[in-house]
Write a structure and sequence with these properties.
Shape: elongated
CATH superfamily of the largest domain: Glutamyl-tRNA reductase, N-terminal domain
Number of strands: 14
CATH topology of the largest domain: Beta Polymerase, domain 2
Distance between the termini: 18 Å
CATH class of the largest domain: Alpha Beta
Strand content: 5-15%
Strand order of the largest sheet: 8-7-6-9-10-11
Radius of gyration: 29 Å
Amino acid sequence: MNRATHSGRRLTQGNMNHLVVCGINYHSAPIAIRERFCIPDSCVGHALEGLKHFRHIKESAILSTCNRTEVYAVVDDVAAGLREIQTFFQSVQAVSDHGSLKPNFRLLRDDVVLHLLRVASGLDSMVLGEGQIMSQVKAAHQTALEHRSTGPVLDMIFKLALTCGKRVRSETSMGKRAVSVSSAAVELAREALGSLKDKNTTVVGLGKMGQICVKHLLGENGKPIILLNRSASRLDGFLQNKLSNRDRLATGFDYSERAAIAAQSDLVIVASGSNEYVLGPTDLGKHRHADSPRQVIIDISVPRAVDPAVADLEGVQLFVADDLAKIVGRNLAEREALVSEAEVIVFEVLESFHNWERSQLVVPTITGLREKIEAIRQEQMAKNSATPGVESDFSSKSDMESISRAIVNQILHHPTVHLKATKDYEILRQQAEALRKLFNLDPIAANPHSVSHTPETLNVTGRYKNGRQGRLSKH
């Protein structure tokens, strides 16, 4: 795959807007770095309020998941806007090594739209077709709407992304094949331990991912599954669901006992939303003894909830979210076929964005042009009607009205058809600007919905070019 680089080109001056995405994801950084950029759901709104204070950021939305923390934005200056997003990332991180922790994933213009469409479709997930990303994209859009940080451009691309994700899941094999990070974790456990039917299992954390893990584990007949959660109310709420083999769930344990319980389990899956380690080497090691089983601990939390030093304990095998890549690499031929099938829809939806984008130039220009010529027509009709000594009956007025309207429609027909037929955005913008200048209409730069497609001087390494995925390189 080829690296797609945009470089050595001139930035458009003026009041044009530019679509960008900047951040970090599993392509560009390991979990040890990603977890430091992770923004908890409860803090996303506050982060959006912070982005609204930057001068060059006109619209913004934040997508923060276990695989990525990305800021989508409309900026009036690309270089300045990206610097402000970098400043934002530094300001929200309570770490000392800001110099080495910088967002290293950047895309511009159409690549931003294409990226979000693929993300929502599960094509850019670590686990192909991962289903939870749709709800995460929807939540990111909803939070941006609630905090009024989004605008017409981001609102449109997020709506299209959700539409694209739904179509991919309903119209292709991706929906049948779709898996989650949680199901991949259970599959990884089977690879490491073999059959799970005779294994003592503990699940720590009952957020969305933890609950999905439990449901997958209940599908296998075997020993009880111990559930541990900091919040007793969430645990009780989960137990109210209709669950197959519910009698296998073992509850009633105090959360403070988690190290002792985990130490005697064959399999421990941790899906905690805590900002602190919930399992460490000291507590876990204290409860392990000669008869303790060889155990597998899978931490799918981001930030990580299991201290990496746990891997140094005798008999303990620790996996983290990035280890799920082993599941991704399986059945490569099948994966490529699924991607090809889904990307047909992705590029159809991308064309829908292009149509909407062109309409932001065509509709106001045609409307302004028609209003201008109509005003001239009415002015001339009024002058003619008020000419002294000229008699005009109802019939002649009606004839003049019909003839003048027909002339106006004839004059406007060709430019209207030509504008609507123009597919190239930059040519369309030049034509619209020419018409606005010739007929003294409001300048096109005043249209807040316009997004510039003019290349910039900024060196940006992207993942997409001419509809093909490229290799991402770190900055």
